[in-house]
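Deadline looming. Please check this record:
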Amino acid sequence: MAAYETTRTAPFGAISTYRFINFFGGVFAAVAAWNDARVTRNALARLSDRELDDIGLCRGDIEAIGSVVR
């Protein structure tokens, strides 16, 4: 029974490239989440007090919508 090692090191620059892409992917996700929260706050701000009350919110709750950490 023969056994040989099959592990190889990553090619030169592969880890740096992965970190670079991962960083910008995180930045893109953060910008997308910020924009979603902004759009939601704007939509809620256009509702009347009665409509906000129907969904269980008040005007003061609108600004806290985007600050919830997921």
